[in-house]
Amino acid sequence: MTPPHPAPPAGAPLVIGHRGACGYVPEHTLASYFIAMQQGADYIEPDLVATRDGVLIARHENEIGATTDVGTHPEFAARRTVRRIDGVEVRGWFTEDFTLAELKRLKARERIPAIRPGSARFDDQFEIPTFEEILALLVAQNAQRASAARALGAPAPPPVGVYPETKHPSHFAALGLPLEEPLLELLTSYGCDAGAAPVFLQSFEVGNLQRLRERTRLPLVQLVAAAGAPYDLARAGDARTYADLTSERGLNEVRRYADVIGVDKSLLIARTAQGALAAPSTLTARAHQAGLAVHAWTFRAESEFLPAGLGAAGDPTALGDMAGELAAYFAAGIDGFFTDQPLLGVRARAAFLARSAAPAG
């Protein structure tokens, strides 16, 4: 019997399995979430969109041409279309045009096969999961971990949590497919709001989070992008940007409805012109002063994504020193981080905590 992963020390940065463990298998599949839990992630992170019949499923976007085999199904060829999503024209196949039964005929594919050929080996093997299937897996795994700990006479490990993101909630609400109600209903039905699994709810849309705050006391996460796009696309003509959310006034406004900011990591530590990590910004400290925790996204171990000096020269697919990158963010005081390789994130956190606890000299 495999012993469960020990609980991280109080206050240690949370390891959030980004789309599961998508550095190893195609993202947003039950296999990806299961691997993340086995690797010691504190949370698994599904992105949620809706089907035509109102079922929440896990896809990074409602456009599924790049992450499924839908393009190989001649019966769905006519459903390829152009749709305006949050002000941007997108061509492809969209979940809101398919019933759950139809989507279950599709298989998941690796989103970046040139960088992750190992993951692409598993193309066309896994279904698109519903949010309910993810929660069922999560609750079952937490029960198994608790049982394993009891059998070994070990302390019960903390349950793995779930960290869902509502994707394009204004878009889906306009179609008569609001995401909030089925999301909260499923969390309640699986006991997640009563301790079966801890929860964070995240969104890029301010209005979506404000509506959620009226209905739940679960922790809410305001996602903050580095781009200068309007941050609340539900409000036509609103010219404010994500940069406004990171001002002193913006952070205090966010604290009225959210508990965490989920930040593009470049806003916390930018890169120099040479691609190396620069000095940390003041954002982490200012967010903490406003009473907000800080979760950074996204850490990936492939050299393609690492700062200069931490990757393998000449091979963008080779794994480099993600722990070295994370160490700088740990030192800057982040409270959690999203990673495609949870095992490497767990190891990086353990190594940093061990160095921090070691006596000087």
Q: In summary, what is this structure?
A:
Helices cover 30% and strands 17% of the residues. The chain is α/β, with parallel strands linked by helices and 361 residues long.
How many whole angstroms does the radius of gyration measure? Answer: 20 Å
Strand order of the largest sheet: 7-2-1-15-14-11-10-9
Arithmetic mean of pLDDT = 93
Helix content: 25-40%
Largest sheet: 8 strands, parallel
- Give the N-to-C terminal Cα separation: 40 Å
State the total count of DSSP E strands. 15
Counted by DSSP, the helix tally is 12
Structural class: alpha/beta
Order of helices and strands: EHEEEEEHHHEEHHEHEHHEEEHEHEH
| Strand residue percentage | 15-25%
| Count of structural domains | 1
Which superfamily, in CATH terms, is the homologous superfamily? Phosphatidylinositol (PI) phosphodiesterase
Q: Can you name the CATH architecture?
A: Alpha-Beta Barrel
CATH class: Alpha Beta
Described by the principal axes of the CA atoms, the overall outline is globular
Which spans of ≥5 residues are poorly predicted at pLDDT below 50?
A: 233-237
What does this structure look like?
The protein has a single domain (15-60, 129-357), classed as Alpha-Beta Barrel (TIM Barrel), CATH 3.20.20. Strand 1, helix 1 (30-38) and strand 2 (43-45) form a beta-alpha-beta unit. It has helices spanning 30-38, 100-103, 117-120, 131-152, 169-174, 180-189, 206-215, 242-245, 248-254, 283-289, 322-332, 342-357, and strands at 14-18, 43-45, 47-50, 56-58, 81-85, 88-92, 161-162, 165-166, 201-203, 220-224, 260-264, 269-271, 277-280, 293-299, 336-339. 30% of the residues lie in helices and 17% in strands. It has an eight-stranded parallel sheet. The chain is built from twelve helices and 15 strands.
